[in-house]
Amino acid sequence: MAVTGNYYLNGPSLGSSTAVFTDVDLTVCAPDGFYSDGIISREQVNCILLPQQVCSNCTENVVTLEFNPTSALDLFCTTSLQVDAYMPLGETFLTTSQIFLTSSLTTPLTDGFYKEIGSNIYRENSGGNLQVQQPGPICPPTSQLYISGIAIPCNTFCTNNYNIVLQKSTVSGNDYFSLTIGDYIVGGLVDGWYAYYFETTNTNSNVSWRIFEITNDATGARVTDILQCDASNNCVNL
């Protein structure tokens, strides 16, 4: 199986270069062996790249991708995991229709949202198949939080429409993405449940709004639970 690494060429592409190096100054030749850019492969011997070869038994190409299981917004604006994705030799992340867990190309990667490192283009993996390329979303400003009016009990949000239009902030500076149990809401709130999002919206919209519970203590309005509505219109913990 191929091993990925950082290498430097003395030409604009692998096909037009004469050697592969391990440093950006092109002073240290890469070890003898076969090198591929995912489209072609060439063998290097004594710091000289030999002519391109066709490998009859080559079946896979591997690339490291960033992954988030929840949404494109979370992929670009919060956290992501780096995973190795395998695909047939000659294909790239932007052209292939499937990405796989191993070089055997038999088990598709987990459904979710993927992008190449540093890229602003993502693709959703759904049912084991990559969907069309999409531009990444614009990340919201930090410390931005919009909430609804109070609801009791929590699942009232799951079956009724509430406007999420009141701007709030937290003592810690946490926002929609980073809000955590133990945060305090600036300005106070009465005990109960509130829907929240990073911009104005409502609970009938098809966006990933969430719910927090407030329980006041001696310090103020403390977030004591973070939830979302499930398919059965029940509040479940995130």
Characterise this structure.
With 238 residues, the protein is mainly beta. It folds into three domains: 8-49, no CATH class; 61-135, no CATH class; 145-237, no CATH class. It has helices at residues 72-77, 156-159; strands at residues 8-9, 20-21, 33-36, 41-45, 48-49, 61-68, 81-87, 112-116, 121-126, 129-130, 134-135, 145-147, 163-164, 166-168, 192-197, 201-202, 210-216, 221-229, 235-237. Strands 6, 7, 8, 9, 10 and 11 form a six-stranded antiparallel beta sheet that branches. A six-stranded antiparallel beta sheet has the order 14-12-15-17-18-19, with no helix packed on it. It has a three-stranded antiparallel beta sheet with strand order 3-4-5, with no helix packed on it. A hairpin with a 4-residue loop joins strand 17 (210-216) and strand 18. The protein is elongated and about 75 Å long. The model has no long low-confidence stretch (mean pLDDT 89).
Mean pLDDT: 89
- Radius of gyration from the alpha-carbon trace, in angstroms: 25 Å
Percent range of helical residues: under 10%
Distance between the termini: 38 Å
Count of DSSP H/I helices: 2
Task: Give me the strand/helix succession.
Answer: EEEEEEHEEEEEEHEEEEEEE
The rough form would be described as elongated
Q: What structural class do the secondary elements suggest?
A: mainly beta
Percentage of β-strand residues: 25-35%
Quickly count the domains.
Answer: 3
Low-confidence stretches: none
Largest sheet data: 6 strands, antiparallel
